[in-house]
Write a structure and sequence with these properties.
Chain B: It is a multi-pass membrane protein. Chain B: Pfam families: ABC2_membrane. Chain B: It comes from Blastococcus aggregatus. The structure holds two protein chains of two kinds. By secondary structure, chain A is α/β, with parallel strands linked by helices. In chain A, 33% of the residues lie in helices and 26% in strands. In chain A, the strands form two sheets. In chain A, strands 6-7-8-3-9-10 form a six-stranded mixed β-sheet, sandwiched between helices. Chain A has a four-stranded antiparallel β-sheet with strand order 2-1-4-5, covered by helices on one side. The radius of gyration of chain A is 18 Å and the shape is globular. Chain B is mostly helical. Chain B has one domain. Chain B has ten helices and no strands. In chain B, helix 5 runs antiparallel to helix 10. Classes of the chains: A alpha/beta, B mainly alpha. At the A-B interface, helix 2 of A face helix 1 and helix 4 of B. The structure holds adenosine-5'-triphosphate and magnesium ion (MG). Adenosine-5'-triphosphate binds next to helix 1 of chain A.
């Protein structure tokens, strides 16, 4: 069954069209990368998936229910692009609070803190953390709910290569265990870690593909090159 | 989830000891200033002294003002930091969130009221005919009114600058018209009508009643019900301003 089905999704923000009729489906248990340049509409699409974005028209179905249904709040986890955690609480207090909202206990909260590599910093105030640590604290607050669908907006920004690899390994493990993940990034290098790629450009779906297929279609072993080739081809410019 | 939210708000407060210290000490210090101001003023026989009248009223006004400010800033921070949007994607319901705030700041206000009442009655010889527990109860209900109006006001503020300016707008008219600065019976008719619909009027009336009579009169409960009812109404309106979907 598909975890997410999007049909003819049109979103306007301010007076501008941001998404122009997107359609795609995401099967359960896949790690899907949402890639595209800054301003292409990645965050807007993710907001539509979790049901906080007002949409003009179209349908977004998540785990069999319309996006944003009350029943989904337990089953969908969302991490915003800017870390949204309480700066005047410690990492552990933040995660324990969100754990309580999802009906989980202190043990699960501590495990989630350890999962994002913050066990050492658990007693630090979030305001006193580095930018990358803050993002991970925000991530832990979503992981602790063990949702069926995780929507992560650029969770690896500002992280060093080691941590980034660790987090992607963790995402892959979650997907292997049956969780559906939608992860946005504008670093094409991260695309190779995904099962599936949605490439967004100016609010249109440029491609619904896989890393292997993107390399073949773009005629380059380098995903960034391949993506650029695809962009040029779609704009009618010879590669 | 309400309890978890109240606990979280109190934990945030605990990480800010200076705010706690000010919350607990400032009302007592200000009352001390009023006490010194009126200490040597003669009281005509058979009348309540100025300090006994005004000081007692202040016990209801401080928590209202302080909690209004604290809550509107706290809620504005939830909105601007993105935590509110995130909370609205979790199973936490909107009433549970607002109730959590109400309980947390209500508890803080109870502590503040106990300290201030203790200071006022021991150090400044504030005399109250009725029960001091009732004074604390009225102070807590006033604080919850402040919380509720603060939550509501924060929906109309886009920055901290705007949020603090709502304080004079919401609080001062109620203070001017509550009967403390001029007896309500002597106000122009229309002002009295305005005063009749402002919740602080009833809070002040309840306190005056406790100050006058050693019995718990029905009027006190009616006054308290008016204040609490307004608080519930404001909380319901505030819940309506929390939009799950935004553009
Ligand atoms: N609150 C808003 N009001 C009006 N327009 C907005 C708002 N937020 C975003 N937009 C516009 O919507 C478009 C898509 O923005 P979005 O945040 O979805 O992009 P993005 O792909 O996530 O970019 P980035 O990689 O920089 O995060 C942009 O052109 C942006 O200017
Ligand atoms: Mg974005």
């Amino acid at each position: 069954m598909d975890a997410v089905v999007v049909r003819d999704l049109v979103v306007e923000r301010g007076r501008r069209g941001v998404l122009h009729g997107l359609g795609f489906a995401i099967p359960t248990g896949q790690l899907t990368g949402l890639l595209g340049p800054s301003g292409s509409g990645k965050s807007t699409l993710m907001r539509a998936l979790v049901g906080v974005q007002r949409v003009r028209s179209g349908e977004v179905t998540v785990l069999g229910e319309p996006a944003g249904s009350p029943g989904l709040r337990r089953r969908v986890g969302y991490v915003t692009q800017a870390p949204s955690v309480y700066g005047d609480l410690t990492v552990r207090e933040n995660v324990r609070y969100f754990a309580a909202l999802y009906g989980r206990g202190a043990r699960e909260a501590d495990a989630a803190v350890a999962d994002v590599g913050l066990a050492e910093a658990a007693h630090q105030l979030v305001d006193d953390l580095s930018g990358g640590q803050r993002g991970r604290a925000s991530l832990a607050c979503a992981l602790v709910g063990e949702p069926e669908l995780l929507v992560l907006d650029e969770p690896t920004v500002g992280l060093d290569p080691v941590l980034r690899a660790e987090l992607w390994a963790r995402f892959a493990a979650l997907a292997a265990a049956g969780t559906t993940l939608v992860v946005s990034s504008h670093v094409m290098d991260e695309a190779r870690r995904c099962d599936r790629l949605l490439l967004l450009r100016d609010g249109d779906l440029l491609a619904d593909t896989t890393p292997a297929r993107l390399r073949a279609d773009g005629g380059s072993p380098d995903l960034e090159e391949a993506f650029l080739a695809l962009v040029r081809a779609s704009a009618g410019v010879p590669a | 989830m309400t309890a978890a939210t109240a606990g979280r708000v109190l934990r945030q407060l605990r990480h800010d000891p200076r705010t706690i210290a000010m919350m607990l000490a400032v009302p007592g210090l200000l009352l001390g200033l009023l006490y010194l101001l009126w200490k040597d003023l003669p009281t005509p026989p058979g009348q309540v002294g100025v300090f006994d009248r005004v000081g007692l009223t202040m016990l209801g006004i401080f928590p209202f003002v302080v909690m209004f400010l604290v809550t509107s800033i706290a809620m504005l921070r939830e909105r601007t930091s993105g935590t509110l949007e995130r909370l609205l994607t979790t199973p936490l319901s909107r009433p549970a969130l607002l109730l959590g705030y109400g309980i947390a700041f209500g508890l803080a206000a109870a502590l503040q009221a106990v300290v201030t009442v203790a200071v006022a009655t021991t150090l400044y010889d504030l005399t109250v005919a009725g029960s001091l527990a009732l004074v604390v109860l009225i102070a807590v209900v006033d604080a919850i009114l402040g919380v509720a109006l603060g939550l509501l006001a924060s929906a109309f503020a886009r920055s901290e600058f705007q949020a603090v300016q709502f304080m004079p707008v919401i609080v001062l008219p109620q203070f001017f018209l509550c009967g403390l600065l001029a007896p309500r019976e002597q106000m122009a008719g229309w002002l009295q009508a305005v005063s009749d619909v402002l919740p602080l009027t009833y809070a002040v009336d309840a306190l005056q009643e406790v100050g006058r009579s050693s019995e718990v009169t029905g009027r006190i409960w009616l006054d308290l019900a008016a204040v609490a009812g307004t608080a519930v109404l404001a909380l319901a309106l505030a819940a309506g301003t929390l939009r799950r979907r935004t553009s």
